[in-house]
Amino acid sequence: MRMMKTSGIRGHQCHRISTEDGGSRTIFRRDINDIRLLAAADEMLGCRTMAVAPPEGAGGSYPTTLILEDNLKMASEKEIFSLSGPTFLTAIDWNNSHHRRSIAASLVQGAYTLERDRRQNRQGPHALAPPWWQFFNFRLVKVLMDDHDVSNFGAVYEFNFQYPYHNYYLGQRPPQYVIAFRGTVNKAGNREQGFKLNFHCIFNNLHNSTRFQIGFNSVSEIVQRVGPGNVWVAGHSLGSSIALVIGREMVKAGIHLETYLFNPPFVSPPIERIKNEKLKLGLRLASSVLTAGLAAAVKFQEKNPFALLSTWIPYLFINPDDPICSEYLGYFKHREDMESIGAGKIGRLATKHSIGSIFSGNDGEAVHLLPCAYLSVNLSTYESFKEVHGIHQWWRPDLELKYNLYQYKYESKT
């Protein structure tokens, strides 16, 4: 064996070596102190694990070498469940909001990793996606594929109630099905279709996209079969926009789904990012007056979807440092501020519309606007955009979260 090169991966020493038979291996060296993670790594990566025991009496973790076969392409640590997933959830409490959030986010990560497995041709024992759902006793029953770029954009999971070693408390009710949608993958082959769908979001016509139609049909079929109380819908970034539109359309049909939206895009200038509170308030007031005035001027013949949607309360997970989703914080807070200064009527009219949707038609309905929501705001500190907009933040056990329930005050006409 001779050394070819050495490279660093966060938390690892990584070496590429050649063997006497002309083959090659990739070696990761990482401190791991849980033998269950070693077994998971063996099964997941198709690798051979060599553990070096610490000296007698020594505490702490011990160095472990994972030797990966050459046909497994270099994977990001974030794709590997045993290294970056919520492995601490060994006994699941389905009534615990932290557990539910972590599982929903992990299933979305499973959809991301399915696409990365496809791109890297990782199949069978080399696929990295399965642990993201198998750890929580789900099985993959359907992969949602976009014919435009032949990519996997979502997944349908079914909970295995018959599994003899289930790791949840008896008497609780896990979802029977979860439909999860990934966000944009900024890679060649995925980039163009992702950008097109982002423009669909901006112009409020995501419901015309292939991904929405495929996702909506899949959700509808499952709901018809098992009922809405047994189904979750979840998504991240662009995927949360798809999940949001599906949830809205279901509500219009009288169906309410438990919905988890991670870093959902808010199509608006990021006023919430302004530090000057007086300037921020002034801009919001001006925007509300302008939006309400335009909505009144064009006299939309609404079927009042906002009042209908107020019976549905999705879960939104927002990082205030993420410019893509942070405006949801100001959107809901400003509605309360307008009520407090006696301008509630203007606020209620403005909150149902965006200037863009007014000019683009679509019955004046801006699909990213919501009457009600449970907001979970991540107050933890991060260093990069990838971290504040990433899905991995939402299962961290040390999250500092702030919770708010916002409900729309609908006044019926007499």
The shape is: globular
N-to-C span: 84 Å
Largest sheet: 8 strands, mixed
Structural domain count: 3
Strand content: 15-25%
| Average pLDDT reading | 74
In terms of per-residue confidence, which ranges show pLDDT below 50 for 5 or more consecutive residues? Answer: 1-73, 289-294, 353-360
Tell me roughly what share of residues is in helical segments: 25-40%
Give a count of the beta strands, DSSP E runs of length 2 or more.
13
Radius of gyration over all CA atoms, rounded: 24 Å
Number of helices: 13
Would you tell me the structural class of the helices and strands? alpha/beta
Element order, helices and strands?
A: EEEHEEHHHEEEHHEHEHHEHHHEHE
Please list the strands of the largest sheet in the order they lie side by side.
6-7-8-9-10-11-12-13
Report what the structure shows.
This protein is of the alpha/beta class. It folds into three domains: about 1-70; about 75-260, no CATH class; about 270-315 and about 330-380 and about 400-414, no CATH class. The chain is about 35% helix and about 20% strand. It contains 13 helices and 13 strands. An eight-stranded mixed β-sheet has the order 6-7-8-9-10-11-12-13, sandwiched between helices. It has a five-stranded antiparallel β-sheet with strand order 1-2-3-5-4, covered by helices on one side. α6 crosses α7, α8 (about 275-300) crosses α11 (about 345-350) and α10 (about 325-340) runs antiparallel to α11 (about 345-350). The longest helix has 24 residues, at about 95-120. Residues about 1-75, about 290-295 and about 355-360 have low confidence and may be disordered.
